[in-house]
Design a protein that fits this description.
There is one protein chain. The chain is mainly α. The chain has one domain (10-137). Helices cover 93% and strands 0% of the residues. It is built from one helix and no strands. The protein has one helix at 10-137. The termini are far apart. The model has no long low-confidence stretch (mean pLDDT 92). Residues 1-12 have a biased composition (Polar residues). Keywords: Coiled coil. Residues 1-22 are annotated as: Disordered. Residues 22-96 form a coiled coil.
Length: 138
């Protein structure tokens, strides 16, 4: 029950006004505290959501790094296999070339030997013919 302002003294009116203002300020402070608590809770929820998102992104980055490392390792292994195949083919080619060259050289030497024998036989035959002809004409 509110007393009539006219029946109050000036001092009482000032006190009553101060009490009313104090109650209003307390009410505003309580509302502000409630609002701040709500904002604090909301901020905490957002913070947790962001922390989860950061963790999720970190896991994603780690997964991408792992996959990249696996891919690089697979590529290195495939490159090593391909290089080994090329080396092996080069070795086989070099071996075949060396064998072919040795075979060719052997055939050349064989033909050279045959040619030399034929030459010697022809020379011997010509010498024999020459001697035979000389002895027949002498």
């Amino acid at each position: 029950m509110r007393p009539s302002l006219q029946s109050m003294t000036t001092r009482a009116r000032a006190q009553w006004s101060d009490v009313q203002r104090s109650k209003e300020l307390e009410k505003k402070i309580a509302e502000m505290e409630k609002t701040m608590e709500t904002k604090k809770i909301e901020a905490e929820v957002v913070k947790k959501a962001l922390e989860e998102k950061v963790k999720e992104l970190q896991r994603g980055i780690q997964e991408l790094q792992r996959k990249q490392e696996e891919t690089e390792k697979a590529m290195q292994e495939e490159s090593a296999r391909a290089l080994d195949e090329v080396r092996q083919k080069l070795e086989e080619t070099e071996k075949a070339r060396a064998e072919g060259l040795a075979h060719l050289q052997s055939k050349i030497e064989e033909r050279h030997g045959i040619t030399s024998r034929i030459h010697e036989e022809l020379k011997s035959t010509l010498d024999h013919l020459s001697k035979t002809l000389e002895s027949s004409y002498s």
